[in-house]
Amino acid sequence: MMFLTMPVRIASLLLVSALAACAALPPQNAPGTGVVLPTVGVPDGGGVSPGGAILPGQPTGEPTPLPDTRPPLNPNLPKSIETSGAAAPVISLVKAARASLKAGRPDEAGASLERALRIEPRNAWVWQALSALHIVTQQGEQAESEAKKSISLGRRNPYLEIENWRLVSEARKLRGDKAGAEEAERKREDLQRLIAP
Fold it and tell me: How many domains, in total, are found in the chain?
């Protein structure tokens, strides 16, 4: 019988000790209608009683703005393929693709970009250019896939991502996905705010 009562006694003793410790804590000087605050920093006494407590339902003055928690933008992030550190032949091929596309020769542009990808298959800027080409040729699904590939390779470069999300939005419009296009546009706008001064 003593075997069963010993655990019960220990548990009861621990419970009583815990309750006694809680009851022994001194009150925190709360008058029951609020929390006591230091008597500094609130102009015109708005919402603060003479004792320093915030009263429920009373205004407390102007809201305190939250600090800017954005990480600092790395000034060394490339803003174009020309400043990205890509190999010279890759940059030349992308420039040639742009010129071909401007001249109305999308097949030549595609061939140049495919050659650039063979040289640097993980170059996010080349994938972005390929996505832009497929927007022009009305291949929305392919364009979106390539823009997303560029995003994944871009290592969180907002300059690159802004254009990629614009391309995703355009690709979704081509496919008739209005809600998806709006979602991509919101992401682009969020990134635009990130780099805005």
Answer: 1
- What CATH number should be reported for the domain holding residue 90? 1.25.40.10
- CA quadruple 87, 88, 89, 94: dihedral positive or negative? positive
Q: Are 127 and 153 in contact (CB under 8 A)?
A: yes
Residue 174 lies in a domain: yes
Ordered DSSP codes for 167-194: HHHHHHHHTT-HHHHHHHHHHHHHHHHH
For the stretch 55-108, pLDDT in tens is: 555 556 666 666 655 566 777 889 999 999 999 999 999 999 999 999 999 999
Which SS3 state, helix, strand or coil, does residue 79 take?
Answer: coil
Provide the residue range defining the domain that includes 101.
82-195
Domain annotation covers residue 107: yes
For residue 58, the SS3 value is: coil
Domain membership flag for residue 114: yes
How far is the first Cα of the chain from the last one, in angstroms, to the nearest whole number?
77
- 165 token code pair: 């999300």
Report whether 54 contacts 47 (CB < 8 A). Answer: yes
Please indicate, yes or no, if residue 178 is contained in any of the structural domains. yes
